[in-house]
Amino acid sequence: MRAVLLFLLALFVAPVWCAEDILTVLQRSQQMQLEALTEGQVDDDDPEAQVVRRSFERIVAAVDEAPGDVRLLVVRGPLLAVCLMGRVIAANVSLAGLTESERDFVLAHELGHVMQRHWSQLGQLYQQYIPGEVVQAQTDAVASVLGREASELSHRQEYEADAFALQLIRRLGEPDDTPLLLFQHLPLVRATATHPGTQQRVVHLRTLQ
Ligand SMILES: [Zn+2]
Description:
By secondary structure, the protein is mainly alpha-helical. It has helices spanning 2-13, 22-38, 47-62, 100-115, 118-129, 136-171, 178-185, 198-208, and strands at residues 71-75, 81-84, 88-92. Helix 1 (2-13) crosses helix 2 (22-38), helix 4 packs across helix 6 and helix 4 crosses helix 7.
């Protein structure tokens, strides 16, 4: 999601040459991110990649409704996990080094973004403010209000994905304190335009327990 907002910022400073709607622009930005991540793809027969893949299969099997054409990409790189275009989950191979329940929580969080249709919700918000062709004068006019609303929506979606993941790992019989232990292992993160900080996520998770 962060890439979307950064791309939107770029959109406001760079001219748009040809007539495109905002969904095409958003899609392309995520497609570019996916291509970059694909360069760090880990082979399917790598033992650590297999650990991540098995966890993913377990959590997908635990949801009520089939998630459709969701795809897992196991990668090396700086990010832990991300959901792109509402259907591709890129997960770091280092997840293999976490406990099984922590790994399941991370993957279930990303699956939550898929199942809760967060990508299309974000697209609808952008479309509401930028209907039709993307025109610079129009994007300039809505930049601050759209930026604020997109940020609020992204934060809400992070909390929803955390709630989804907690419910899913409970269903797998994994302990409730899993995400709290996970956050202790990860670097403390401050809130950004797209993500609540670690503290805020911990507070939210405690309200669910
Ligand atoms: Zn998320």
